[in-house]
Amino acid sequence: MSWARFDDEMLDNPKIVAAGPIGFALHAAAILHCSRNLTDGFVPYPVARRLLATTWTEDGPEDRIQVWSLAMVSGMVGDDGAPVIEHVIELLCDLDLWEVVPHGYEVHDYLVYNPTREKVLADREAGRKRAADSYSRQRSSGEETPKKDRSFAHSSPDPVPVPLTNDSSLRSESRSSRKSIDEVVIAEVAAFTEAWNANCDPLPKLRKPPAGRDPIRLALQAWRYFDGDAEVLARAVQRCALDTHYREGKYGFQAFARHLDRWGAEPQAPPRIAEGAPILHLSADERAKRRRAVNDAVQERLRSGVMPTPSDFAPEDRGYLIESLAENSWLVEQLKSAEMQA
Asked: Structural domain boundaries of the chain?
């Protein structure tokens, strides 16, 4: 039998608080599984889904057996049974309490507080040898084997689990890997900050690299969305800075990072517009209103048997004409078929 170590301040950990009671129970069950099976923190994919029972029974009134089911509910929305475990596993991974690895998950920092499989097996073998040697000495000297005092548990573990100090190589390896990861994150966040500040005008600039969990996550999300290509990121920021809605609202990098699909696509070649035509900076509502007006006009012309042409529309609306023709391609095909039959 082996012992699992838990920090007595665990319940004050913000990650544990965010995981909720079911997340805490599943996380603790995973640590116990790793300790019992000496997996060095690894939890296989199918095992993670059966660590906690989602149904159980108890005696009910009139000698009936009641079956209860584990559930998570918010207002009128909720799940019970297996979907709850799936949700909690995803939450533990998002909180970095678990890490996704091939064929399963790894409990974060498990080996910082618990011994490795190799050390546990070595300690067990050393204990067996000590017991065998002690028994041999007692037999050879004729001493009687003393009875074990069971008035209290001599083998109880230290109630305050602290990081292991007898495996310096493991600790240094963990610290060095964490340091290298932190350096990469710092570098990527700094690169995003530089690209944002150089291209975001007139949107708010960053006085310093983002700090805090959510700002750092959003900065990394934006940087990695463009595969670390500063030039592509710069063009996306410039497109965002030209948006009237963003400029009027003075939205910052967090709003940009939450809608990367909007700014990530490179713009297509614009339709030909008469030279000297005015370029209008319209709000999102005004653009939608113009788009609907153009679409209505296109549908009316197509249904009347007339193919719309750019000259039928104002220069600033001709871009919407191309979109509308694509959306009403079935009307275009009908008109072409009618012309061929005529």
From this structure: 10-117, 172-264, 284-341
